[in-house]
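hey m, so remember when u said the tokens were messed up on ur end? i reran from scratch. heres the input so u can diff it against urs
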Amino acid sequence: MPENEQAPQAGIRTPDQHLRVFVSSTLGELTAEREAARSAIEQLRLAPVMFEAGARPHPAQEVYRAYLDQSDVFVGIYWQRYGWVGPDMTISGLEDEFRRSQGLPRLLYVKRPSPDLEPGLRRMLGQMRSEGRVAYKAFADAAQLHDLLLDDLATLLAERFGGTGEREGSGYSVPAPATRLVGRDHDVHALTRLARSERHRLVVLTGTGGIGKTRLALAVLERTRGHWRDGVAFVDLSPVSDARAVPEFMASALGFVGQGTETPAETLTRRLAGRHMLLVIDNFEQVLDAAPVVAQLLERSPGLHVLVTSRVVLRLRGEQEWRVEPLRLSPDGSGLAALARTPAVQMLVERVRDVRPGFEVTDDNAAVVAELCRRLDGLPLALELAASWMRLLTPEQVLERLDQRMERPGGLSDLPRRQQTLSATLEWSYELLPEPARRILARLSVFATPFTAEGAEAVCGQDGTDATESLATLLDHSMITPAGRPDGRPAFRLLEVIRAFAAERLDDPAETVGRLERHMLDVLETAGPEQGSQDWARRLLDSEAANLAVALQWAAQQHVSDQILRRLGDVWVWSLVRGNLRRSTGMRQQIDAWPAASLRSERDQLARHYLQVIGYSGDGRWAELGALLDQVLPAARRIEEPSRWGIMLAARALARPYAPDSPARAELGEALTVTRDAQSPLVAGYVQSHYGNYLCIDGDLTSARTMHEESLRTADAHGDDNLRAEAHYFLAMDSLTAGDPDPAYRHLEAAARYYTDIDHRDGLTRCLAMLSALALDRGQPRLAARLTGATAGAREDIGLLPWPAVAEAERRVTGRIQARLPATEYGAETAAGRSATLEAAIAQVLSSLAAATVTGAGR
């Protein structure tokens, strides 16, 4: 920034509104370091504020204070000089900048060694330490400062400004590493180039377990984040052992919801098509048979780039392998300084400083530190674990005990030698834990997805053990790591190698998984009062879905079904919206295959039938749904609570083909009375929306509109976006049937928005069909015919038939369109409509009809 620049006006920002990073330092002695800081800041697409006031004889206080007021982050870089103290100041401009940065996030760095440290700066740094509110990091040269600042800014952005550790606008959750990546500069640089290359859209990081593949992949993801139009995403496959489950697991991890008879692989392909993004898939080695899924995604999504971590290559065409080697062990010169720069030693020292601040490589310990890194083969995970031991032990004690343990083979004899070494390291680390923490670690292995502290207490806090205290111990020993969840709650996970190690030491698996099942019952009960319909409840259930699958499997094996199947039925809206009871899902297959011995009573059998009813509804299998309900409804009336058999009765009505004298209308009326009497307003709201649909088709428009308006109020009161969408859709049908198209447009626009938010393609298809009726009423029969074709094409894609009553309403609209156009013209327009995607068709017609609505309103 020019030295003669005037003080800026308040509120000025860079043209692209990037965060501003104020860099404070003396000038002459730190020229190279200031350029390194500028490079790191600009690499993250932030705006460096390189004001030189701290280096001037007479600081332009008004100018640098104005820039500080507009900055978002403060970076202080210090070495030996304190800076000039102006005639009207008692402290230097350098210290004044630091003091005035209070309230901003601050990153501070001090260059070492500093043999000529001036007294003023010594006092200033000492005061920083004594206050304890801020801490600074030491660096040796400009290159190290660049790396430190780059990683620290990335972490700061994640924690303070909604970065990598939070759900972003793209909806994807990406882990935010808490430590600096060491010794991988060459790998990151080369992989960044590869990841962006159009020639190598699939890059696979290979190497042994614990070598740092995941950490390296995350560094590349963060380094290239700004390159991708549609962002970045991360999927960890470590909980998956069956390759057939990979598409479903990936779709769930990315928040994608399958539609109708769509398979999970088809869901992934549909949602990723057309996106320009980087997808990192972690821990692929145990599901190699799923490699064709990756090939298909790349083939169907030309803008998608995939970075995979795996112990072995995927053997796909176009795959670019990058083998991740252990951290380098040999120094690039002689002496302590060269040894300290060695990547393996540098990483060990940095991690030891986390538990023993001030630790240094000295003449006394250099040989031991070097030997320790050599014996650990430069494996990052092993180095991190060894560093955690030095909270209590000297490097010599660590090496001495490591020698004893390394003589013993690891517990997993089929793994290569380096993994044997890691297993021995894990075993010894495990033995260093207090006995309560060992028990907790073993019990934590039953979690298949990140767990909260409350969840760990519920599942692992047996025998009077304080799980929370043990979690802190395990976190200190790097045996668990922080993790993200869809519900945003703080959580932890076990690295898979540690999880497998811990599972072998679980001496009470049945009891512990039983406690997990009871914890899942509590989760389902928490979400159940509103049927899992609210956003927070959906996210909670999404976070626990993998744990729920473990509990379901255990309950089936133990012949325990009276609670978990029933509680699952309590969150039927979540199951319907997420599609996890469709016939292609693992949960549905588990339920259908439930052992008969577990269903000992009629009530147990009805609990499973209730879930199957929800599943058939989601699949659009109306004939099978009707047959099942004819079989079970008599028993449900006798045994089930009224709200449940009321839903089942409403489902029976919905499955019937429409006819003017159909019993469906009476069944819906009875279902509404029953659910209202049972004081289940949300359930009654769903019944009411469909009852109103029948009334609309039968011509009772006043009653239909009254019911749908009440259903919308119920949805708003309970925060149920799915019911909101349904109510708006049916209100649009009411308006169109009454010949009032303007309200219909507003309702269809709202319905499409809510259906899009929850990725409900069947609902969007219904909206598209009703938009064809609106186009017809607007005097655009050709557009209406084209939308009819688009609706038919979308229905074929998702493999669902609409509710029979909805099909009747759409049939009437189609008849009106055919009456307005010659047969050849109608056929040509519907054929043209089939080629349009669902989303494009809806967006186009809403835009077109919006203009017609405005024109009509102005007449």
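this time it looks ok to me. The chain has a mean pLDDT of 84. if urs says something different then somethings off w ur setup not the seq
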